[in-house]
Write a structure and sequence with these properties.
7-stranded mixed beta sheet, binds ligand TLP, 4-stranded antiparallel beta sheet, Aspartate Aminotransferase, domain 1, globular, 14 helices, Aspartate Aminotransferase, domain 2, 2 domains
């Protein structure tokens, strides 16, 4: 059976060019700072993001964690969205491992935080309160339909943060999707950030790894954090080699994933019993709800899986589909036909 896997862009497998680069990678002990391929990837990532330095980490979760550990002390407070991956899906790592207190604001449907609410949430200097230290945002915003936060929004957020002596962290797991969708240089989206995490192993199709980028002293601290959480890797150049290919060859093609996501959303929007959350899909993520009394999200997901179409239920009626490197425009039409049949809408 032909499988059309729309569960996530994390399912992508390395390209032939990545496998060749991995096989031929020059390696060394990266904990001693001796892996030339890791160092090359870190420098390349920093250059692409317009930051001083980069750090190769095992995952997006680790990148967010070591960033927050580097910026915040125990009892410091982080302003974060209620739909943020760092808040929802990382085991509360900032609190569990860093003693960092999350101050949760509602994410708007476009993935942003209301800046007036952010301003109001910043604590006064008062012995009763934790100290506000950092504002964390996500770009693109996964649970807000892959929404891309604009450079203009980031600038305003940056000005607010600087004016109050706060830091900004961007969970940019899919920051290149945002840059491609908005048609801007990725640097403009992170110029106001003190730290950025981005993932190689999502839409960019590398098998493993994420990067943290920021100022040199911050990266020095984040490297210490990476070691204490057991993330110091040795001959990691075999992984970093795939990451270099990801950055050099896989960024521009994200536009194809975005076009496929738009056709998927448009096709779904015409189906009875399906409510697409936002038909104006900007990146690779589509959310829709099953609104029928005889069928819920998990049931639809299971019936689609039997026919080779995989998606992820993220609620009793809510389903997520993420386009990716292994899904073609023809696959999207085939998936839509299967969905039509399963819904009895043909
Ligand atoms: N997201 C995964 C799941 O955990 C939901 C996915 O399939 O989308 N930030 C954002 C915005 C993410 O979407 C993810 C992964 C991460 C961080 C964590 O990255 P990893 O999985 O590398 O730890």
């Amino acid at each position: 059976m032909h499988i059309i896997d729309l569960r996530s862009d994390t399912i992508t497998k390395p390209t032939p060019a990545m496998r060749r680069a991995m096989a031929e990678a020059e390696v060394g002990d990266d904990v001693f700072g001796e892996d030339p391929t890791v160092s090359r990837l870190e420098a390349l990532a920093a250059e692409r993001l317009g930051k001083e330095a980069g750090l190769f980490v095992a995952s997006g979760t680790m990148g967010n964690l070591v960033s927050l550990l580097a910026h915040c002390g125990r009892g410091d407070e982080v302003i974060v969205g209620d739909q943020a991956h760092t808040y929802m899906y990382e085991q509360g790592g900032m609190a569990a491992l860093g003693g960092i207190h999350p101050r949760v604001l509602k994410n708007r449907s476009d993935g942003t935080l209301d800046l007036a609410e952010v301003r109001a949430a910043i604590r006064d200097d008062n012995p009763h309160f934790p100290r506000t230290r950092l504002i964390a945002v996500e770009n693109t915003h996964n649970r807000c339909g892959g929404a891309a936060l604009t450079a203009a929004y980031m600038r305003e957020l940056g000005e607010l943060a600087r004016g109050r002596g706060l830091l900004v962290h961007v969970d940019g797991a899919r920051i290149f999707n945002a840059a491609v969708a908005l048609g801007v240089d990725v640097r403009s989206l992170v110029a106001d950030a003190d730290s950025v995490t981005f993932c190689l192993s999502k839409g960019l199709a590398a098998p493993v790894g994420s990067l943290v980028c920021g100022r040199r002293e911050f990266i020095h601290e984040a490297r210490r954090g990476r070691k204490v959480v057991g993330g110091g890797m040795r001959q990691a150049g075999v992984l970093a080699a795939a990451g270099i290919v990801a950055l050099e060859q896989m960024v521009d093609r994200l536009a194809e994933d975005h076009a496929n996501a738009r056709s998927l959303a448009a096709g779904l929007a015409g189906l009875p019993g399906i409510q697409v959350e936002d038909v104006a899909v900007r990146t690779d993520i589509v959310f829709f709800n099953v609104v029928r009394s005889d069928l819920d999200g998990p049931q639809l997901r299971a019936r689609l899986a039997e026919r080779g179409v995989r998606m992820l239920p993220l609620g009793p009626r809510r389903i997520r589909a993420v386009t990716n490197y292994h899904v073609t425009a023809e696959d999207i039409q085939a998936a839509l036909q299967i969905i039509r049949e399963v819904l009895g809408a043909d």
